[in-house]
Amino acid sequence: MTSPSTTTHAAPVMEPLMVEAVGVRKHFGDNEVLKGIDLAVRPGEVVSLLGPSGSGKSTFLRCINHLESIDGGEISVNGHLVGYRRAGGKKYELKPREIATARRDVGMVFQRFNLFPHLTALENVMEAPVFVKGVARTEARQTATDLLARVGLADKPAAYPAQLSGGQQQRVAIARALAMQPRLMLFDEPTSALDPELVGEVLDVMKGLAADGMTMIVVTHEMGFAREVCDRVVFMDGGVIVEAGPPSDVFTNPQHPRTRSFLSKVI
Amino acid sequence: MATTVEQTTAPAHADEPIVPLRHPGRWVAAVVLAVLVAMFVSFLLTTPQLRLDLVVGYLFERSVLRGLLTTIELTVVAMLVGVALGTVLAIMRLSDNPLLRIVAATYVAVFRGTPILVQLLFWFFLGTVLPNISLGVPFGPELFSVSTNTVISQFAAAILGLGLNEAAYMAEIVRAGIGSVDRGQVEAAHALGMGPALTYRRVILPQAARVIVPPTANEVISMLKLTSLALVIGLPELTTTVQLIYGRNFQQIPLLIVASIWYLVLTTVLTVIQARIERRMSRGVLSSPVRRTRFSFGGR
Ligand SMILES: Nc1ncnc2c1ncn2[C@@H]1O[C@H](COP(=O)(O)OP(=O)(O)O)[C@@H](O)[C@H]1O
Ligand SMILES: [Mg+2]
């Protein structure tokens, strides 16, 4: 735990943090997976989470939109406590409905795409706006068409997921998440399930998003992306943040021996 | 070596005719079958007691057709009850609430663990121990009361017996279907802000349907035949109707043939529908563009 606490306090006072995680703990049975994670992400920041397999990166990401509940500490997204309501010095657990409502601000992209196989690309993108937000179909269709064009799939609205390549599926998944107009996007190894020649097309879409000012937390093994696009890289190992800082620092001059050994393996 | 190779590739050998493998067993089987069919036909034609004229006469008789209609109604309504309640039970069984899980598991255990015949009789005779059904404050004043026998008619007793029993089987089928849906689908739905009910309706159940529909079609076919058990409560569906007729004229076999013909017609229709649905479903799983390949024989 060298530098993350300094970045927590480096945020300007006026600007609310997009994500603020304080002392987050999580265990599965006896296995303590997160051992006190502190992380603050400012609006518009792109942060990549690096670390060896099993270090708790996915679990932490899933805690941010409450796909996992946490056992200690707290997380706020855009000023709202995740999973709880604070009142009178106590935290009250939210109802499933309220949790669902809170998740609208957070988009998530999964390693294995998880597109809805019974719906076309366009229907996948329209699904949440229509059924969660109650947007009119014609309007949702227009937005979805625009989003598919934005991820370079203007010609594939009627294709079912099984008819698309991995890279195309992942781009539809990104469009589907964007359709809810999230303030924050979480990516869990979005290119790890892809053939090498398809990685670039997904990273290009993500770079475009970053350039447009989207706040992003990206778990990735693509060091080129982390170095080029991210404002900050956070290195996790064994359920703690070992080192964090601008990519230029962490990649060229890693402080912690575990960071050094990890980087020497992946670069 | 060289000569052998030359021989096998010589054009003269390439044109030699092929002698197909002979299947003497097939011929023996065909002869045996032909003899059996001939014996059966001769039995039908030379046994006047069979009264084929009665079979033809009763096939479209008014009360038989009314019984047939009742059989179809029973099948449809009991299956609707079974599918709806079975889905609810399956969702309860998979819920986080331990009480709901226990209730659903107990239901399935009770209704699968007792004979359906007993269940039918149970609903029919409920009026003898519970003469009135009333609505009111538990252990308090009654707001509304009706006689059990007026509410639970023969038809209602048959629906309760068949439908509630079916729900127990459908619960297992739906549960297997829901279990076949990838966990990532639920996470994706939740991450998009879908609540539990919407996730079931829009994401889980449509995908589970692929697994649920084929065995459900089987259940419809067995339900069609199970409705004949309504005989024990005297509901005039197809089997009861023919029984009432042969009770008067003692022509049991001709009338049972009448009933069998109608059951066979209905199960055949259902089997054709089932095959269609399964073909459509498997096409969905492959998710390839709907493209029919036409095979042509003889180059045409
Ligand atoms: N649902 C779960 N139940 C039990 N253990 C889990 C579960 N999810 C993750 N874990 C465990 O938590 C640890 C961290 O997993 P994960 O967050 O997926 O790591 P990473 O994404 O960094 O590879 C692993 O040891 C994994 O086995
Ligand atoms: Mg992971």
From TrEMBL, chain B:
<feature type="transmembrane region" description="Helical">
    <location>
        <begin position="67"/>
        <end position="92"/>
    </location>
</feature>
<dbReference type="GO" id="GO:0043190">
    <property type="term" value="C:ATP-binding cassette (ABC) transporter complex"/>
</dbReference>
<keyword id="KW-1003">Cell membrane</keyword>
<feature type="transmembrane region" description="Helical">
    <location>
        <begin position="104"/>
        <end position="126"/>
    </location>
</feature>
<dbReference type="InterPro" id="IPR035906">
    <property type="entry name" value="MetI-like_sf"/>
</dbReference>
<feature type="transmembrane region" description="Helical">
    <location>
        <begin position="226"/>
        <end position="246"/>
    </location>
</feature>
<dbReference type="Pfam" id="PF00528">
    <property type="entry name" value="BPD_transp_1"/>
</dbReference>
<keyword id="KW-0029">Amino-acid transport</keyword>
<dbReference type="GO" id="GO:0006865">
    <property type="term" value="P:amino acid transport"/>
</dbReference>
<feature type="domain" description="ABC transmembrane type-1">
    <location>
        <begin position="68"/>
        <end position="274"/>
    </location>
</feature>
<protein>
    <submittedName>
        <fullName>ABC transporter permease</fullName>
    </submittedName>
</protein>
<feature type="transmembrane region" description="Helical">
    <location>
        <begin position="27"/>
        <end position="47"/>
    </location>
</feature>
<dbReference type="InterPro" id="IPR010065">
    <property type="entry name" value="AA_ABC_transptr_permease_3TM"/>
</dbReference>
<comment type="similarity">
    <text>Belongs to the binding-protein-dependent transport system permease family.</text>
</comment>
<dbReference type="GO" id="GO:0022857">
    <property type="term" value="F:transmembrane transporter activity"/>
</dbReference>
<keyword id="KW-0812">Transmembrane</keyword>
<keyword id="KW-0813">Transport</keyword>
<dbReference type="InterPro" id="IPR043429">
    <property type="entry name" value="ArtM/GltK/GlnP/TcyL/YhdX-like"/>
</dbReference>
<keyword id="KW-1133">Transmembrane helix</keyword>
<feature type="transmembrane region" description="Helical">
    <location>
        <begin position="252"/>
        <end position="273"/>
    </location>
</feature>
<feature type="transmembrane region" description="Helical">
    <location>
        <begin position="146"/>
        <end position="165"/>
    </location>
</feature>
<keyword id="KW-0472">Membrane</keyword>
<dbReference type="InterPro" id="IPR000515">
    <property type="entry name" value="MetI-like"/>
</dbReference>
